[in-house]
Amino acid sequence: MGGSNSQNDRLVDLNEFGSNPGALNAKIYIPEDLPTGAPLVVVLHGSDQTAADYDVGAGWSDIADLYGVALLFPEQQRVNNLTLSFNWFEPDDCHRGAGEPLSILHMVEQVVSDHGIDRQRIFITGLSAGGAMTSVMLATYPEIFAGGAIIAGLPYGGADTLPEALLRMKGLGYPTAQQLETRLRDASMHEGPWPTLSVWHGSGDRTVNASNANAILGQWRGIHDLEKKPSSTNIVNGYPRRVWSDAEGRELIEEYSITGMGHGTPLKTYGKNSYGSRGDYMLEVNISSTHHIADFWGLSAT
């Protein structure tokens, strides 16, 4: 299961999925004999990556086979962004009912209807610009997602222009936690329960400063009405994990700080619970974010 998977062609095109105002491509991976009522994970690649690159690196299709999960990979096109980044900071692409978020919503709806997905178990994750777009999707369509996982990403509503986005990536010029929380609330007018959240960041990230993880945590602690102090802390595979739980002890937010890691997705590509293969922005650090995120979402229980 480790670094042996070089099947770049595991993903297939999802050609028809309603209107596509964001002009994105879509790929899917559906395990054989997927049961009705299976979960769906939406996976958003980072800059300079394709959907297939990210799947091979992170190993999501291996998790999908193991646990019986459908996968959807929205994919950026160079005509929209030269670096293949999702346009998380563009006003046209970070609001409900328009642009890239609406394209991704329509893809989700198509996969749900095609494969009988359990609507209570739709999740989303992404790296870097894909992590920032994960923030956008959780903000603009929180009623769709049971949980999200943001890897080396940014909070919702921090930037409206490319210069602002580049500053935020350095951790500079952020609105206050209260302002970020308000922007998240105002993105959808949502009143129901909010998605759970898993946050991953390398402490040595020089592309997206690790202070962005704290900005995301502050934004979402406010949404979930949680204290600043975590409910519990522990060490997993040598790295600190902090958890914020509700009054019933249900884990709502978790954060892994990967000590010394640069910009990328944390991987464990050999031994037990290993997935994916190392590459650009896919970093071998002896912990599989893919495995732990799936576990946090309860996918391993299916």
Features:
302 residues; alpha/beta; Rossmann fold; ten-stranded mixed sheet; 8 helices; globular; disordered N terminus
What does this structure look like?
- With 302 residues, the protein is α/β, with parallel strands linked by helices.
- The chain has a single domain (12-301), classed as Alpha/Beta hydrolase fold, catalytic domain (Rossmann fold, 3-Layer(aba) Sandwich).
- It is built from eight helices and twelve strands.
- The protein has a ten-stranded mixed β-sheet with strand order 1-2-4-3-5-6-7-10-9-8, sandwiched between helices. Strands 11-12 form a two-stranded parallel sheet.
- Helix 6 packs across helix 7 (211-224).
- It is globular.
- The protein starts with 11 loop residues before the first strand and ends in a 6-residue tail after the last helix.
- Mean pLDDT is 94; it is low at 1-6.
